[in-house]
Amino acid sequence: LSDELLIKILSFLPTKVAVTTSILSKQWRFLWMWLPNLEYSSCLQSYHSNSSALGEFIDKNLPLHRAPVIERFRVTIVAVPSTACLASLKTLRLRCLTYEHDDSLQGLLDMCPALEDLSVKFGGEHSMGEITFVVPTLQRLSLFLADEWEFDGYVIDTPSLKYFKLVDWNYGRHDIEIKDMPKLEEAYVDVVSSFLKSVIGSITSVKHLTICSENSSDLLGQLLKDSPNLRLLDISHMEDHGDYERNEMVCWNQPSPVPECLLWSLQTLNWSRYFGRPQERDIAVYILKHACRLKKARIIADTQEHDVPNLKMITELAFSSRASLF
């Protein structure tokens, strides 16, 4: 077999296992040094007796690496050394971790001066105080906060952000502080309604917005007024929010005067799981009536969850007045 094919085979193995193949023969001796993907773990059984073994293993083997480009570098580690520096790291994924101190996460982020894409999922029984995300270079941020997780709040300071996804269905009392995101282009916001107001003022430059119909109806008018550059609006009742009967829209504050985004920028409206109830109908009719630049409206009815006939919903929208000629 050629070296290229053997390297391809080795790329499917954990790095530690790939290194052990160097004893098989002379041909195999240096092949592992050319692997484009590296994966290290301190959770393997051989590391349990010595917490520093992983660091020693990486220190010995990483300098020997000969691949011109490392495409993926993955480390599973219990405690991140305070001296660590990931100077070229651009993408970071963190899932259900236990942080030793409230500032441990920010300490890790400070080790990544070139970070552009961050995804963090909080959950489990571990509790924290205030969490901070201060990353000047960050362009994409995805945060998932479980409803049972305990924390005091979070601060987000990411002035270069272009994409922001926030899923916060934690009903526990917590503070939210989000600094201005002047470069933001796309946002996915699924937040408990009582906390949504803390988000609105920071996403005013957004062009593509996805929101949940269940928790945003009372503030949708404010969202439209504060998003003058909005071009695409996605509205949906998120499927994991439980029984719609208990969580239907209860308030729609019709904005006056008409928001700038409806007059000058909104081109696409997508609404999935449209139930056709009075508040939803009022919102849809208002947008269709005032969106002068609208080119496409796609509204998908969900007739399985309620008693409003599909034909009635279609008729109501079809005969409503429209500002554009799409």
TrEMBL record:
It comes from the Eukaryota. SUPFAM superfamilies: F-box domain, RNI-like. Residues 260-326 form the FBD domain. Pfam families: F-box (PF00646), FBD (PF08387), LRR_At5g56370 (PF24758). This is FBD domain-containing protein.
